[in-house]
Amino acid sequence: MIPLSLLIMSLLLSCGGAILCLLLKHREEDIRLGGSGVGIAAALAGLGAGLTAIGAGQPVVLDAAGPYPFAHFVLRLDPLAGLMIAVISLLSLVAWIYGFAYVREYAGRGVGAMGFFMNAFIASMMLVVAADNAFWFLIFFEMMSLASYFLVIFDQDDEAVGAGFLYFLVAHGGSVLIMAAFFLMANRAGSFDFAAFRAHPLPAPLDSVAFLLAFIGFGAKAGMIPLHIWLPRAHPAAPSHASALMSGVMIKIGVFGIVKVGIDLLGASAGPAMLGWGLLVLAFGAVSSVLGVVYALAEHDIKKLLAYHSVENIGIILLGVGTGMIGMALHQPVLAVLGLMAGLYHLLNHAVFKGLLFLGAGSTIFRMHTKDMEEMGGLARTMPWTALSFLVGALAISAIPPLNGFVSEWYTYQALFAAALDGTPLVKFAAPIAAVMLALTGALAVMCFVKAYGIMFAGAPRSHHAEEAREAPAAMVAGMAVLAVACVALGLLAPLMAPVMGRIAAATIGTAPVTLAVGTTLLPGDAQQATLSTPLIAILLIAMAFLPIALKTAFAAKRGGDRKVAAPWAAGYLPDHHMPASAGSFAQPIRMFFAPLYTMRRSIAGRWTGIALGFERVVTLARRTEPLADRSIVAPIAGAVDASGKWLQIIQAGDFRIYCLYIVAALIALLALAV
Amino acid sequence: MLTFSHLILGLFQALLLLAAAPLVSGLSRMVRAKLHTRHGPGLLQDYRDIAKLLTRQDLTPPNSGFAFRLMPAVMLTTVLVIAMGIPMLTRFTPVAPIGDLITVIYLFALARFFFSLSGIDSGSSFSGIGGSRELTMGVLVEPVMLLSLFVAALLAGSTNLGAIGSAIADGHVRSATATVIAALSFAYAIYIELGKLPYDMAEAEQELQEGPLTEYSGPSLALIKWAMALKQTVVVAWFVGVFLPFGSASGMSFFGLLFGLIAFAIKLVLIFAAVGVVENSVARVRFRLTPQHSWVGVGAASLAFVFYLVGL
C-alpha cells in the first residue's frame, strides 16, 4: 500500500498547493516560494509512488465505494501506471524548480491562477493514469484537458485564444470518441469498472470498433498526424514550463490510453483482428514520425519547432507500441515485450529530453522576449549553461549514441527487425518500411537540431538583444541541469534501465520478462541478433579523444599562439550579418526536396480551417438567430407594454385636485356597485 | 562476448587505419595526377601536409564558439571508435557492442552533427551552406544505407555487421540475388558518403571553398583532413567487411590476421583506384538534382527488399 499512500499524499499536496495559489493571489512573491515548495513536495511524493509501484510489480488497488454504482471510485497502480506517474512527477518536479524563477515573466498577470491550473493539471494527469473506472477516467481526462486549456490561453492574445479554441475542439472531439468506446465496453460488462472490462471481453467485430474509436480519440490527444493540427499551435502558446509538461507528459497520456485500451483492456482476449490494430498503429507511427520532423524543419519559431518534434516522437513511440501489439497478435511474447518496451522507454526518454528542450527554449525566450530563432544567435557565449543543456537535449533527441534517445530508438529498430524476421508476410513487408521511415526521421532530426542549436546558440549574435543576453537565473539552470543529467544517465545506465522497462512491458502484456541486458551489454532478447553497450561507447569516445588532444598539444610549442581573426572569409567582400546561414536558408534544401509534403500540410490545414470555419459559422448563425427571437417575441411585448404605459400617462397629469377627483369617482363607483 | 584481446584487436585496427588513411588519400591524389598525365606530388604528400599544418598557427573566426573548436577532435574520435567496431581483418566485429549496423549509422550521425554545426558556428556563409548540404546528403543517403543493410541483416538473421559478413562469406544467405542487389545499392550509398565527385557537395572545393573547412587552419585543419581521410577509409572498410569479407580471418590466429590484413589492403587499394577513376571522369551533379540520383539508390535497395520478400 506504500505506492497508494504516497500517491494520495502527492494528490493532497497538489490540492493544497492549488488552494494556496488562489488564496495568495495578490501576493505573488509568496506564491512563487510557497507554490513551488508545495509543488516540489507533491512531485517528490509522486515520484516515490511511481517508483515503488514499478518496484512492487503487482498492481495495488484502492477501492472506495461511491454514492452511485457507475461511479465506483477505484485507483489501481500497476507498473505501467507507476511508470506514467514517475514520468509525470519527474517533469513536474523540474517544472516547479524552473517555474520558481520563470513565473517572474508573468508577474502581475495572474501568477496565482497559473499556479492553480498547474496544480490541477498535474493532479488530474496522475488521476487519469491511476483511475480504474471508465467514469472517473473520463472525468479526470476532461479535467486535464480543461486545466491545460486555461494554461494555453494564459497569454490572452489572439494567437493564444485561437490556439486554445482549436485545442478545446480537438480535445473534446477526442473524448467523445473515447466515451463511445467505453460505452461499448461497459454495455457488455455491465459496469464501468476496468476490471469488469477485462473480465468481459467484447466479441469480434465490436472490439475492433471500440479500439478504433479509442485509437482516434487518444490519437487526437497524442497529436499523431493527421490529428496533430492543434499541437503546434497550442504548445507554443502556453508558458514554457507548462509547454514542457504538455509536450513531455500530457500527449503521452494519449499513448497511455492507446496501450490501456489496445493491450490492457482488449488485447488479452483479442483475436486475429489485433494484427490489424498493430499494423494500423505502426502505419500511423511511421507517417507521424516522418511528417512531424519534416514540418519541424521549416519552422522559425523555436517552440513550434519543438512542438512538431513532439509529433515526430509520438510517431516513434507508436512504432514501438504497434510492434508490441503485432507481437501479441502473433503470440510471440518476446517480440511483444520488445516492442512495447521500446515504446515505453522512448516515452520516458522523450519526456526527459523534450522537457529539457522546452525549458531551454523558455530560458532564451525569458531573456530575449521573442520566439523567433532569427533574432537569437551566439547565445552560447552569453548563456553557456543554457547552451550546454540545450546541446545535450539536441543530441539526445537526434538519437546520438550514447545518449538516451539512441537507446530507445535502437530497441525500436531491433523490435522491427525481430518482427520482420519471423512475422506474417504482411508484417515482413511493413516492418522494414517502418525501419526505413525511422532512419529518415533520424537523419532529418539531426538536421533540425543542428539548425535549432546552431541558429540560436552558435555563430554571431543576430540582434541587439542577443548581444546583451545574460545567463538564465539559477533556478532555471538547475531545472535544466536535472533533465540534462537524466538524458545522460538514461543513456549510460541503459543496462540497468532496459530490464526495468522490460518488466513493465511484460507485466502490462501479462507474459514472462525477456532478457534485455547482460552485464553492461544490451540485447534484444537474443544476443545473436544484436548487442549494444552504451557505457562502452562512452568510455571509448572519451579514451579515443586523448589522441587528437595529444596531437594538438604535442606540436603546440612549435607554433605561434592561437589567435582570432577579424572576420570570416567572404570571398573578398566585407562580411555582414546577412551572410551567415539563417534558419530559413539552412533548411532550404529540404523544403525544396520535400515540397509535396509541405503542400499536403497546407491542404490538411485547410481542411481543419474548414472545420473551424464551420464552427464559426454556427456561432455567427446563433448570433443572428438570437436577435431574431428578440425581435419577433420579446420586442413586440416590450413595445406593447411601453405603449400602454404611455397611454396611461394621460390620466396622470400631476394635478392634486384631479387625483382627488379620481378618488371621489372611485368611491362613487364602488358604492354604486355595493348598492 | 567481448574479451580483452578483441578490444586490443579493435584498437590495433583503428590505429592501423589512422596511420594508413593519409596513404589512401595520397593514392587518390596520385590516381588523379596520372589521369591528368601529371607527375603528381607522391604517395606521401598527405603525411607531409598534415605534419606541416600541425606546426602552423590556429586561427579562429571572431564569433565562433566551442562547437567550432571541438569539432576536429569530435570527428576524429568518433571515426576512430567506429573503426573499432567494423570487421576488417576478421570475419567477426572486434568490439561487438559497437559493430551493430544501427549503432554505426548513428555514430556517423554524431560526426555529421558536429561537422555541420561547426559550419554555422564559424559564421561564414560558405561553411553554413556546406553544413546544410552535408546534412541534406545524410537525409538522402541514410535510408538507402539502412534499407540495404537491413535486407542483408534479415538474410543473415542478425544486425551485427560481422554476423552479416560471415553469413555472406559462408553462403548462408537465402537469397543470392537480394544480397547482390543490396550490395550494389549499399555501394552506391557509400560512394555518395565518400563525398567524391560527382557527389562532392558539402566540401565542394571550387563551389563552396571546402564548405565547413573554410575557416579552419593549422592543427585543427590537420585533424579534420586526417579525420576525413580516415572516414573515407572506414566507410569503404564498412562495405568490404559486410559484402566482400572474402579472405578475412575467422579466428584470432596470427597468420590468419596477417592474411586478413593483406587481403583487406588489396581490396582497399583496388576499390580506391576504381573510385579514383570514376571521380576523375565525371562532372559535379547540380545540388538540386541530387534527389533524382539518390532515388536510384532507394529504388535499388527496394528492389533488394522485394527480392528478399519473394525469396529468390
Commentary on this structure:
The complex is a heterodimer of chains A (675) and B (312). The model of chain A has no long low-confidence stretch (mean pLDDT 87). Chain A is globular and about 130 Å long. Chain A has 675 residues and is mostly helical. Chain A is built from 25 helices and 5 strands. In chain A, a hairpin with a 2-residue loop joins strand 3 and strand 4. By secondary structure, chain B is mainly alpha-helical. Chain B has one domain. The interface between A and B is large, with 88 and 89 residues.
Compose a concise summary of this entry.
The complex is a heterodimer of chains A (675) and B (312). Chain A is mainly alpha-helical.
**Residues in helices of chain A, as a percent range:** over 70%
> What is the tally of beta strands of chain B?
1
Q: Assign the structural class of chain A, choosing from mainly alpha, mainly beta, alpha/beta, alpha+beta, or little secondary structure.
A: mainly alpha
- Overall number of strands of chain A: 5
Q: Please tell me the overall pLDDT of chain B.
A: 89
Global morphology of chain A: globular
**Termini of chain B, distance in Å?**
34 Å
How much of the residues of chain B is beta strand, in percent? under 5%
**Unreliable parts of chain B:** none
| SSE arrangement of chain A, N to C | HHEEHHHHHHHHHHHHHHHHHHEEHEHHHH
Of all chain pairs, the largest interface belongs to: A-B, 88 and 89 residues
Number of DSSP helices of chain B?
Answer: 11
Oligomer: heterodimer
Written as H for each helix and E for each strand, in order along the chain, the element string of chain B is HHEHHHHHHHHH
- Walk across the major sheet of chain A and give the strand order: 1-2
**Structural class of the helices, strands and pairings of chain B?**
mainly alpha
The largest sheet of chain B, given as strand count, sense and whether it forms a barrel, is: none
Largest beta-sheet details of chain A: 2 strands, antiparallel
